[in-house]
Amino acid sequence: MASLARSLRLAALWVALAAPLTATARTDRLGGSASLANCTEIVFVEQPVDHFNGGSATFSQRVCIHDGFRRPGDGEHSPVFFYTGNEGPVDLYVNNTGIMWTLGETLGAVLVFAEHRYFGESYPKLDGMENCMAYVSSAQALADYAAVVPFVKNRLGLDHFHSKVIAFGGSYGGMLAAYFRLRYPHVCNGGAVAGSAPVLGFASSRPDLDGAYLAISQGLEDASGQADPQCWDSFLAAWTLISLLAESSGGRALLETELGWCSPLPPVSELLSTLQDVLFLLAESNFPYPSDYIVFATINKRGYKLPAWPMREVCAHVRQPQTRVSLSGNRSDVRFTVDLHEDPKVQIEVDWDAARTTDARELSSLSSVRDLVRGVGKMYGMLYNITGDVECFSATSDEEVPSLAKLKKEEEAHGKSTCSVDAKSVGMLDAWGALVCNEGFFLVQYLLRGLGRDMYWPPSVSRSSLANSSYEELVLAARAEASCSSYRERGLYGVTDDPATLDPLGRWPFAQYMGREISQYGSKIIFSNGRYDPWSAAGVLESQSDRGIEAVEFAHGAHHTDFMFPTAQDPPSLREGRAREERIIRSWLVSGQGNAIPASQV
User: Fold this and answer.
1) Are 19 and 297 in contact, with CB atoms under 8 Å apart?
2) Is 386 a domain residue?
3) Among the three residues 503, 524, 559, which one is the final residue of a domain in this structure?
4) Fewest CB within 10 angstroms: 191, 198, 333, 587, which?
5) CB proximity list for 246: less than 8 A, separation 6 or greater
6) In terms of residue numbers, what domain contains 306?
């Protein structure tokens, strides 16, 4: 893929629910917003490090149980809502998965939150283990969950057949919830709710390679929530101008001043990529209420929130009236003209990745240019200067993986397989990157952008490559080779790193979990997606109600917005979607072991 390090940064945005949201509902029974303190007990389940090939090594998996919602009349038939933990400590999901707390109280469910292996406190002893990173995988995690369910049922006296288990998960956890239902239907016997789960994001399912950026662009709105084409055009103009400004000393000085960037500026391609990537984060967090979700997950700052509907504020920063900046020409073919309505007018001709102007004036002297660049700087600062105390911004190289940098850098790697690093030195990105390499979890719906369907520029591939390359060739060309092998050099062994065995086309995930065939062979799964969410480009968006596959799409939803606690600011589409989810879940709880009752009949 486009370097694994950059992919990891995008995947870190998945650390879904990883921030301590404060806009949460409160229940009398909880006496406050949900937290790890609300677990009626925290248990550690002894799990084999390798479920499939034997061995004596084990680790303790942390599990939170809340048993306070059970109804006396349900007895051993009480349902279980089971969170399939993803790439983070379990308390992050306990704190923020509002859908389980609100529906769990309504439906009398036992809540179980299982921590994913190699995250939080659920680590095996790595130092001295042979090929210690070989066992971080979705397949091993699902086997863990399949063992946790009967453990919990035995502990609480629940009937193994009649107590329905419904899996919940967001992002990667949503993928796991769907896969849990597919691979262990006798354990996950009630159904699964997969929020913002990009199960169609592997190359084997052939999602649009620019799909994430199309979703982001289509979420550009004005203050009233209406589509804002002028915002789209302002961004296209801004990227073009930044590229041209970087060619002169006066232009670079303006960029440093108006963007608030540290000197010296990085190469323009890196600068543009850094500025554009923040839109991915803001789109994920395009919630109807102020939220610290992305703030905490990306810059680890508590007490600071993005505003409600942050993408609308993005447009307010960059939107330029057509009387100052306008576009004409063929945007879909990336042949357009940027008109700067100065006196006299300045025109910039754009043809794919080339931009030029014949005007002799220095662009940095034009007020329309300064205002537009300043707006981009304010957009970037919405997140990265949310504290208001950042003197200047700087870019992080794609090749940096900060947590890996802490590990041993000098060690002879060849011929060794015994790990020499303590688990405490292995961060979330380390574990996630190993899983990606081990199982071919290379998602591709964000590999390309700027191809004429979004508000990005320049295109990430040449016009000839796009026209003459197959889908698979485009995927392979955008992938980096080296990142999976970086573990070996740091005393961590077992990560799949041989180019001959890496799986960038996602063949293993397809063989294990299916792709688009989920709708044909799966049953009792809700796939929920928000239209604003970049990950929705790889989500299941069409229902197959005869199979019990229900797609719930939120017109005004971002990254698993429906999993958050309800708020008074929720738009009607979100409230209606949540009500539909509840109807479907209720139908699962009253149906037999076969397919779900279609929601229309509930």
Assistant:
1) yes
2) yes
3) 503
4) 333
5) 252, 255, 265, 268, 271
6) 1-16+203-503
Please say which residue of 441, 475, 503 terminates a domain. 503
In a domain, 391, yes or no: yes
* Of 105, 201, 135, residue with least CA distance to 475: 201
DSSP 516: T
468: exposed, middle or buried (Cβ count in 10 Å: 0-12, 13-18, 19+): exposed
Is residue 368 a contact partner of residue 341, using CB atoms and an 8 Å limit? Answer: yes
> What are the backbone angles phi and psi of residue 193, rounded to the nearest 5°?
-120, 110
SS3 (DSSP) at 527: strand
Task: Please indicate, yes or no, whether residues 522 and 425 belong to a single structural domain of this protein.
Answer: no
Residue 594's pLDDT is what? Answer: 40
CA torsion, points 156, 157, 162, 166, in degrees to nearest 10? 10
The three-state DSSP-derived secondary structure of 262-273 is: CCCCCCHHHHHH
Instruction: Report how far residue 349's alpha carbon sits from residue 356's, in angstroms, rounded to the nearest whole number.
Output: 5
CATH of residue 569: 3.40.50.1820
Does residue 547 sit in helix, strand or coil?
helix
The yes-or-no verdict on residue 481 having pLDDT over 70 is: no
Same domain, 186 and 209: no
How wide is the angle at C-alpha 274 spanned by C-alphas 562 and 232, nearest 5°?
65
State how far the alpha carbon of 572 is from the alpha carbons of 382, 563, 568, in Å.
27, 16, 10
pLDDT tens per residue across span 198-257? 999 999 999 999 999 999 999 999 988 899 999 999 999 999 999 999 999 999 999 999
Do 190 and 213 fall within a single domain?
no
Q: 394-417 as b/e, with b when 16 or more CB fall inside 10 Å?
A: ebeebeebeebeebeeeeeeeeee
Q: What is the CA radius of gyration of the chain?
A: 25
DSSP 201: -
Query: What's phi and psi for 159, nearest 5 deg?
Result: -75, 130
> Which burial class, exposed, middle or buried, applies to 371 when counting CB atoms under 10 A from its CB (0-12, 13-18, 19+)?
middle
State pTM to two decimals.
Answer: 0.92
Check whether residue 406 and residue 468 sit in a common domain: yes
